Structures
1.
Amino acid sequence: MGCVQVLPDNLINQIAAGEIIERPASVVKELVENAIDAGADRIGIEIEAGGKTLIRVSDNGCGMSREDAVLAVERHATSKIRSEADLFAIHTLGFRGEALPSIASVSKFSLITRAQDTDCGVEIVIEGGRVVSIQDTGSAPGTLVSVNQLFFNTPARRKFMKTAGTEMSHIAEIINTIALGNPGIQFKLSHNGHVIYHFSKAGSVADRLYEILGPATTGRLKSFSQEQEDAKISGWVGEPTLTRTNGRYQFIYVNGRSVRDRLIQRAIMDAFTGWLMKGQFPVAVLWLEVPAHTVDVNVHPTKSQVKFADSQKIYSLIKGLVAKTIGHGQDASVEAHPFKSGIGMMPGRFPAPLQADRLFEIREEPGGVEKQIAAAVAEPRAAAFPPPIQQSIPGAGAEISPDGSFIPFDDLVVIGQLHETYILCETGASLVLIDQHAAHERIVYERLSRSPHPETQYLLIPQSLDCSPREADILLRLAPKLQTVGLEIEPFGRTTFAVLAVPALIDASEAERIVRELIDRLLDTGNDAAEPTILDACIKVMACHSAIRANQKLSRDEMQSLIRQLGKCEFPARCPHGRPTWIAMGQREIEKKFGRLGSISG
């Protein structure tokens, strides 16, 4: 018997499923897109256990006849293309003809459908790719697909699924994205019997935009529209101060299809050059309409990526339009103070002076007000949870090794400040540079993490925090945990929360940014993390936002105080995110660079 053989159909289907069905959200995406292609204007999505046990999608679309339904669960069967020419001019969301058989091959699957012009529907039941039954049934016009026990016959795939909360989070993101691109369709999403989203038919895209992004964006989005030759671009872009810590809030649609296109994302980011801090992403919603034959949507099995015939033209059009939109109508103060990427300032926002209760003690002395430095580090107490494992670095009195491993903080003499970002010091025969933001971030982090009951400051006027439905769901579950680190938040309506108190070390004006960044991080990593992990992430975010910034001028006394406090930290060598707080250069290395080693001249 030869080595080459044709694979059985069930294995072929499972391989195809591996390309298309990554997780429950992938199933939801395929089924909802099929419902949209069928002309539905009401789509219901029922989920149980994050999609692990049940995914059910119902619609009031055109439905299928018995003959079409039987063919629809066969591989490479589709109603959406007829010829090779159709393949290069796709006008529908789905077209491959592999979604249904792929899903059915890795689940206990049933399809109930009825065409609008027939009196009887048909039900097809499939388990692991094997057809169990095909029979007539009574049903309303449209289609109902049920996917039970996803990956029940592929345990290797099933074990890679995350918790129900994480999987549901991905499903919610899919529905958000599809709903925003289809405002004329009603979507209802439920999980374990509880309604998560119920988007009614929106009167306009702007109405749906408000539902998806939440009230926080009200008045902070600018619309744009331009039609040039055979490309039409329209949408909204957030003002430069409306940013997120990832690109999740950039919604891109090409001919109605939601995509994660790097070319368009880069055009948006490049349009904001000089306006964004490092690690910040603008909020944007963009619709691009081009002739179908000028864009290839067949470059990825999940149809999430596209390729343009003239990519440079598309890039230039989008970048120019977005740049013009955010630049038009800005007030003089913003225009006069654009900031460079990574500088650490937002337009029109200047670094606040160091607060007396955060780093320095201000005392009235004869002859004027002088800063008298006070040690601000609290006495070590039992940590609320174990700090991250790092190499212990000796503190005061340690000698600098030839490779700069250790630093004697008590002996450092401040020389000055470089670029208002780095503190220059000397000790013995070494030059030491300290990153003022990273150093202060380490100080604040250790103070917060070592206090089991941090001192809080209640806000005179609670800060209102408007969220999208998905953000509200995460924050509702997160709020009780945050109280243990001094951040008190209470629900104040369906998607609105009130920030009542923050740790005493934190600038109260940073409360909203801290909470939003924490939510974004949980969306990136999965919001089912253990409590210590969530709290540690929260403390890191608070420390980062509370620390003094780059481009902030410090007095000599302020620099010296910062150095002393850093020396009292348990892990002074790195900030909570792992970046070094200081680097050292020995005299021998300096002399080597100047060519003085071995020189007989002075």
Note: Residues 267 and 315 are 5 Å apart (CA to CA).
2.
Amino acid sequence: MTIVPQARFARYTMISTALALVLATSVAARERPTPRPPLNFLGVPGLIDMPTGHAMPDADLSFTAGIFDGTVRNTAHFQITPRLSGVFRYAYIRDYGGSGAYYDRSFDLRYLLNPESDTLPAVSLGMQDFGGTGIYAGEYIVATKTIGRLRATGGIGWGRFGSHNSFDNPLGILADRFKTRPEQTGGISQTGRLDVGQWFRGDAALFGGLQYQLGENLVLTAEYSSDAYKSETARGLFKRTAPVNIGASYRFENGLDLSAAYLYGSTVAVRLSYSINPKSTSAVRGGLETAPPIVAVRAPGAADDLGWTRQADGKEILRSNVAQTFWESGLRLDAFAVDARSVQVRFRNLRYTNSAQALGRATRILTSLMPASVDTFVLTPITDDGTAAARITFKRSDVEELAHAPDGSWQALARAGIDDAYPADGAAVSQDVFPGFTWGVGPYLSATYFDPKQPIRLDLGVQANARYEPQPGLVFQGQIRHRLTGTQGDVDPSNSIIRHVRSDVGIYAREGQTALTSLTAARYFRPGSDLYGRLTLGYLESMYGGLSGELLWKPVTSRLAFGVEANYVRQRNFRQDFGFQDYDVLTGHLSTYFDADDGFTYQLDAGRYLAGDWGATLSVSREFGNGIRIGAFASLTTVSFDDFGEGSFDKGIQFEVPLSVLSGQVSKRKIARAIRPVQRDGGARLDVQGRLYDGVRAYHQPELQSQWGRFWR
């Protein structure tokens, strides 16, 4: 294509975009709802290679794979809030580094400055690859306006987005430093640094395009790209003959989106995306979950009958009936006490992802089994480790009145008493529950991610575990694994210049074919009001053994909690049997937790890490009503970026997905993973089991309130 058609297309795109914005100003100003926008080949709301101004719906989670001419881009995009979104991208580029396949990791952030209204376009600001190698690094401001079935987009970009038909940076009028873009500090061998000095600096360029909705599912797109692909063309990896891209995408009803495009006058590309919204995804599909027990309503005057209290074995019969019915409903009765007017139960939730639903099931059962004179229900949910988390009190008359009320769930919450479970109640421990012993044997699949030479390494084997609880809060447990096959042991030896506290994972995998992954004794206790404690001794995880202690302050009605953890540990030998290496360390953290609205939880841990470095870790997660949790974390410590090595500092993403979401069957079991772009030694923490906060908060008022809609389910 010659220069003249390119210039004409660019002018046509810019004029069309401006016309769309002008025409829109004649309509009354109000925010307009927009459907889920298409994703581009970089996995963000966009045209083909360029971004657009719209955001995805709140909480949308999208996965994209785009392929063209020796490049594969895999992207996960999460709409963190209605305006803020985050992106993790993992790309394969053939021969980019000059020595065969190259795998690149990068992060993006996008912020919706203005949602589209009848008069104004959607406007977004984005930073692409701001924390990776920088080969995709660029910043942009982009606007998109919808007129009927047509969407017009125009934007200005820097970095990669300012590399074709560029001009002097208009921000140069603010300061001379914006006129030039410094060289990246790390290069492709040093990822993770935040090159703040590059942002919105250097030459800028315009980009834009048009999208047309042809029918309900098909979108046609044409764009003018400002990305010159300088690095790829210089290495002979890609031929770019024109700045024009055209394509089409087809969206299926199940969230899949298939796209094909002709890029830069030289190559064909295909893209597949899948989007899901955990905010609106049910934990269990209707018809698969067992119906709750009915609420038994007492006959008028029945509460005055106390004849049952004179039956010698009456209380034991009631306890047995409650224990049996609880068990059939996915609950376990740990302790029980009843008198003429009240009943106290301590129980564990074995089945339900939703804590409020477990409370509701227990309450329903008590209405059907307790004598009519018993009008006060005191329920104490117990964590999986035996800690009394809270004490919830219901009046039976309220339960009967509200069971079928239109807003009965919220009225039940308003009338319930939620208090601290300290000191312990007088309920007698069930002798048929303690001591308790469970064990199991089954397969395991272990994974490490983003090795520079291989995206995923897997180990497959068989594991056996056992758990013994002689009394509430005293737990002995152990696990043994035998690896049958896998590639985790093929990781290159660590080149870390600080103590190898995590980066020798490949040696542990190779030499620990049969490994004692954990063997501990743990004591969980309540030292006082609003206080929770844990002591754990033994082989705490696959790499460390020793003593770990934790104290948590968490009032039942508070969104705020504070904790302190101290550990004295010694590094285990590579075989993961009973021996140790000659490295020991005192490590621990002070922690602050805050439960915010919309399911957000913020955690800040400050202290000493396994390599002896000091620093802090910030974790942010969002949990939805179905139990899905998505989050991210980052640690900055006294280990410098250079000493840390590849990645510059510890960071990653976390997710939890209940099996009930995948299987449609009620279950508390979850798939939980923490995915790091690279595992190094700086900012490394002990991976001890049974930390207190998540178990305790599940039955405190802020968490119960967010889940209370399922109390009657």
Note: The longest strand covers residues 454-471.
3.
Amino acid sequence: MSENPELPNLPTDAAAKPSEPATPTDTTPTDTAHADTARTDAARTETPQRRRALAGARIVTGVVGVAVAAAAIAGAVMLPLPGIQTTPPVQTITPVSSEQQRVCAGPLLRLGTEMGQDASQPSSLGEPTVQAGGELASAPIGQSDAAGSGPTLLTAPAGTPAAEVSAAQSQSLADGDLGGFAASDCTEPSNDSWLVGGSNAVGRTSILILTNPSELSATVDLSLYGATGPVTAPGTTGLVVPAGSQRVLPLAGFMPAEETPVVRVQSRGGAIAATLQQTTVRGLEAGGVDVVGATTAPDDTVVIPGLVVSGLSALQQNIAREGFADLQNVLRVLVPGDEPATLQVGVMSDAGDPTGASFEVQLTPGTVADLPIDVQADGSYTLTIDSTVPVVAGMRVSTASDSAFDFAWHAAAPEITGDLQVSVADGAGAQLYLHNPTATAVDVELAALGGEGRVINVAPGASAVVPLSAAGSFGLGDTAGLRAAIGYASDGALASYPVRPPHAAEAPVTVYP
């Protein structure tokens, strides 16, 4: 191979090294090689110590870092932090009471004519007298199954306390074979009511009256009970009572010949004011009339105050006659649940003394029992029931004179507390009965509206009887757990209705943003 004539001849060492700038140094290539070898050997000898040193340094550095972070966090926690406090703008709202409604059942009714024609058509007889307390607007409920006048709706304006509203009605009847005296309170509509009373025996007519004063149609279901148990009948469910109307239903259409009916009225939609009217005719002789209001809901304690027994000797002379057996005073009881009940029934005088008519009885669930109540002297009494399971009850009391017979169904009285108002409809022999079931004496304030008041002391376990000389409305204060009733008793006339507490007011509501 020939040489390149263009390249000069280079020294051998220069040709072996890469071309780079020359760096002045005193170290010869041999010295440099020895130095590199020494450094390599030193590195091999010091590697474990250096690794341990570096690891230790890293650990120390980490610990210090963690300690610093912990100190920073602790300092942040211990230092007071700026805070912001504010009170939420809450508002307490007391709902305004809606309109208060009371429904008076209206005139007494007859099925058919006096000659027995059109037996299924109800018609009104005369007009009741209504006594109302408070600023109440009165309006008739014109749509009724009964021919003639109908029930009355009393309305207090919105914002009127329920404790300042009351009303009652009364009516004396003398129309051929129908006669007697009836009084009842004008009640608040309800979606659930129990009616204990009436009879469908021969000569006895019971009429179920359903009044819907609301602007909503009501769908009503009836639960019927008799001496042999629950009664199933067509047409007892899904009954429609249109808004602002009254349905009048002969009870014999559902349970013919039943002598011991109990009716539960439940409604959906509009609330219903439910009453039961009974008339009694013995041959061609009037045997009395009454309007039965709702009794208390099932309870294991039942109190029926203001039972007036009058004309006892005349009753005893007639009770053995054919068709007069129902002059006997009876307690009607239903056990609506599934368990049998053991009842302790007590009858006491106004002074709280037992009468000897007290007893214990076991009752079968679902069946209605009429239990005779025997007292030995005219007077007023209170009946109490203590039961092992909840029951509903009412009591029929009869009276007799030389010229007339009458009876009254007494509903159980609910507990009343605080202040309330009661109206006393016109009628002879009106009295207020106050029973104190507690162990402490109660001083009740009684005052006619717009008049002066007085204090009535009711001893523990006893009753107070307050004669009322005229119809009117009265305020009751500090009633403290009493049970009360308005009763009427005169020659051949008898009636009663319980004093009911106003419905509970709406509680204040706290509103948060």
Note: DSSP finds three helices and 35 strands in the chain.
